[in-house]
């Protein structure tokens, strides 16, 4: 028998082969409903209220949104754990991959919104990040974990329902403290003086041009006749000043239980956002 060397396995195929093993390495909670509260941080009333919102979303849009709190991430990072949990539970329809997972790990102070393939263009990474930072984290920091979960669910549902205006990233405003800037940058007063001088020069040139156009002042020089036309020739001086002006531009380019509840075969490619408190 001739020895045949083993050909190296492509990286993509190797990764796909390892995914089941990675999933088996986690001791995931069972998918018992739209709210799986393994960490035990939600009251029965809150779980029921949140589950009702999630059911209403799924009935209207077929989008499967599930909330999960876990006792531990089992040594994993939030992104890997959430992605594998969504894949294991197969949230969302198989054809649409329209599943979403809101994962909370209170012991590690981590939260993540994991988004299925089919919703990445609607529930974008930026919107997920805004929901986490402005709706969830502030309540978590105030030790109101159930309130943060409810507010996060409301934000996700509003985006998925077509109302994302509230969660669009807001442009940051800023003010300039001239005294503080001058203290940190000694050259700032000089630059300010030069800018003022340039503005004054431009203003003076503009006034002179207007006076010339109106005929109120006459430039030094004389007219000569060339090819049948009068041409103005400026007076010559021993020294000539010339100036040129240029311009530059720059561009810059985030449990209620039901025995009949289960995932629909959906998957995720890692879209979403994470946060901590």
Key attributes of the depicted protein:
277 residues, Diaminopimelate Epimerase, Chain A, domain 1, 7 strands
Description:
The two termini are 62 Å apart. The protein is of the alpha/beta class and 277 residues long. Mean pLDDT is 79; it is low at 12-16 and 238-258. A hairpin with a 2-residue loop joins strand 5 and strand 6. The protein has 7 helices and 7 strands. The strands form 2 sheets. It has a 5-stranded mixed β-sheet with strand order 1-2-3-4-7, with helices on both faces. A two-stranded antiparallel sheet has the order 5-6.
Outline the fold blueprint.
Blueprint lengths: L10 H15 L9 E3 L6 H18 L2 E6 L8 H12 L9 E7 L4 E7 L8 H17 L3 H16 L17 H7 L3 H27 L6 E6 L2 E6 L33 E9 L1
Parallel strand pairs: 1-2, 2-3
Antiparallel strand pairs: 3-4, 4-7, 5-6
Helix pairs in contact: 2-5, 4-5
CATH fold assignment of the largest domain:
Diaminopimelate Epimerase, Chain A, domain 1
User: What is the helix content?
Assistant: 40-55%
- Based on CA inertia axes, which overall geometry fits? elongated
Q: Indicate the structural class.
A: alpha/beta
State the assembly state of the protein chains: single chain
Return the CATH class of the largest domain: Alpha Beta
Mean pLDDT: 79
Low-confidence stretches: 12-16, 238-258
| Strand tally | 7
How would a crystallographer describe the biggest sheet? 5 strands, mixed
Element-level helix/strand string = HEHEHEEHHHHEEE
Strand content: 15-25%
Count of discrete structural domains: 2
Strand order of the largest sheet: 1-2-3-4-7
Measured on Cα atoms, how large is the radius of gyration? Answer: 33 Å
Distance between the termini: 62 Å
Going by CATH, the architecture of the largest domain would be Roll
H/I helix tally: 7
